[in-house]
Write a structure and sequence with these properties.
heterodimer, A: about 90 residues
């Protein structure tokens, strides 16, 4: 009997807690109404996609050029350092 | 680097700076509207990606046949171009598709085979970097598969059902859309040529540096 009372109490508490959630749910649809076009607030704008595509291309190309240039300058400075070392050892 | 390289770089930079104005003057496409203008950077990127894959394959075949390291350096530079321009193609495509098709990605023959081609180019570079001694020849073999994939990518839209535009779109373009495309193709191919030249030069300098270290080791 005690178990039954506890179970009923638990169900009652849970139901009370869930009721605000149920109140927030959208109203049940009884029919679908067709429209020709999406409402303006739901249409996907093209401009951010277009600008994003062009910005991505230019950024990646610029990044690659910078990366290769840095690699080249690192190699050149290393070659210069080695040349200087070789000359110093030759003189010594 | 030779003197003409700097002047050609300036020319390429100027063409890229002008390209947004040329694209802005192109007419809108009737069904896709503004977002179709992604096409003017997307398609040249794709063509450069495919061309670089073919160059990588041919240079690799010549390297395997002759053992000349010059061909290997060309193949390496072309593989980097394939990765770079493949990435541009695979990112700009979904940005266009999201608006035009309502989805970022579809697993059709064209897009999937492009992704496979891009991953082969990546695999080439990873193998070169981490494969250890002898990886040049292994990666050269891989590049042949990358090249073999290119004709499949190109014709896939004509043989398999897809919503990707067919290859017949480009020859049928009106002048108002064809000129901006030709302009951007010139920009991208010129850029690919310059970047490849620069990358080959870096590889030559690296080879020179390795040779100096080797001679120092032998003297020591």
């Amino acid at each position: 009997m005690r178990i039954l009372i506890r179970t009923i109490a638990l169900v009652f508490v849970l139901t009370m807690q869930l009721s605000p959630l149920a109140a927030q749910q959208p109203r049940q649809q009884e029919e679908f109404t067709p429209i020709d076009q999406l409402p303006p607030q739901e249409q996907l704008p093209a401009a951010p996609l277009l600008v994003g595509a062009y910005a991505f291309v230019l950024l990646m190309l610029f990044g690659y050029v910078v990366m290769v240039s840095r690699r080249l300058s690192t190699i050149r400075s290393e070659v210069d350092r080695l040349d200087a070392d070789v000359k110093r050892i030759g003189k010594g | 680097m030779p003197k003409w390289f700097q002047s050609t770089t300036l020319l390429c930079g100027a063409l890229f700076a002008i390209s947004p104005f040329v694209i802005a003057n192109a007419p809108y496409e009737s069904t896709m509207g503004l977002v179709q203008k992604v096409f003017y950077y997307h398609m040249p990127s794709a063509w450069v990606f495919l061309t670089a894959s073919v160059i990588c394959g041919i240079a690799s075949a010549r390297f395997l046949a002759t053992g000349n390291p010059r061909h290997d350096r060309t193949a390496l530079a072309a593989a980097e171009m394939a990765v770079l321009f493949g990435l541009l193609t695979l990112v700009t495509g979904p940005l266009w598709a999201r608006k035009a098709w309502g989805t970022w990605w579809i697993w059709d023959a064209r897009i999937t085979s492009s992704l496979v081609g891009w991953m082969i180019a990546w695999a080439y570079l990873i193998l070169r970097k981490y494969g250890g001694p002898g990886s040049e020849k292994l990666s050269a073999g891989l590049a042949l598969f990358g090249m073999a994939n290119v004709p499949f990518i190109y014709v896939s839209v004509n043989y398999w059902r897809t919503i990707h535009p067919a290859t017949t779109v480009v020859p049928k373009l009106p002048f108002s859309m064809g000129f901006p495309l030709l302009f951007c193709l010139t920009c991208f191919f010129l850029l690919m040529f310059l970047l490849m030249k620069l990358r080959v030069h870096v590889a030559e300098q690296q080879a020179r540096l390795d040779a100096i270290y080797l001679s120092l080791d032998e003297q020591a």
